[in-house]
Amino acid sequence: MVQQFSEIGDIMDDFANPAVPLNGAQKSPVLVIIEHHVLARTCILNILKRELAGFEFVELATTSGLNWLAGRDVRLITLHTGDKRITDPSIEDSLALIAEYCPNAYVALLSNRDDDATASAAMQRGVRGFFPTSIPLEVAIAGLRLVLAGGVYRPLAIFGQSDPSNLNTISEYNGAPELPALHAGNGATMIVPEQTMVDLTPREQHVLEALKLGLPNKLIAVKLKLSENTVKMHIQHIMRKCSAHNRTEAVLRWSQRLSGHNGHARSRLPPS
Which InterPro entries match (predicted)? Predict the structure, then answer.
């Protein structure tokens, strides 16, 4: 009898959580909407169901339910960050959970903030779409289609364009931005001699690539499947080998070494 009640309870949990298919088989790719407010979440859900066919839609109030989606074919996760900055600990934790449970999913942020700093911080953390709530609906839908196709969306209005409804605000992803040169105090470019630096190990190079994106230690740990303590150790080694005082200086110094060595600021990562 106890076992029967336990089995009934498991079935009821499946009904209560839309992320879990009852028949154990799910062929459609999944699109997840994470929005705390029920009314807003329902409106977004209905719009996306009408505009984006061929997906199973899962709505969640917070990222705490993402563990139900582990192993599913999640293509896109939309997360509403409200008025919070990307550096807010709750947003960092949410992005870490997404990376942990849905590592192959594209991430799109819906934000009440439309400043360049917020958009840049989002992109540096691997977000593929940044959608201020001030943009028109048709532009947002077009941007989501681009993200689903493997591109990156960021409104040019953030860079000072006058018309946020211009579809030219959609841009393809061309990789991480080039790093600036390291400058001396007198304004001259300072090239760090190659012989002053010790070669990085393959794992240290992977950590360095993550540092270039501005990822915090927690996200680097998730991305590379390492502990945070191991990440900190690698960063300390990188800083020592680059004779740098902080992580930003380490990235700049290593970039300058590569630029002086082969004329190109980006290195090819060795296999993991």
Answer: Sig_transdc_resp-reg_C-effctor (IPR016032), Tscrpt_reg_LuxR_C (IPR000792), WalR-like (IPR039420), WH-like_DNA-bd_sf (IPR036388)
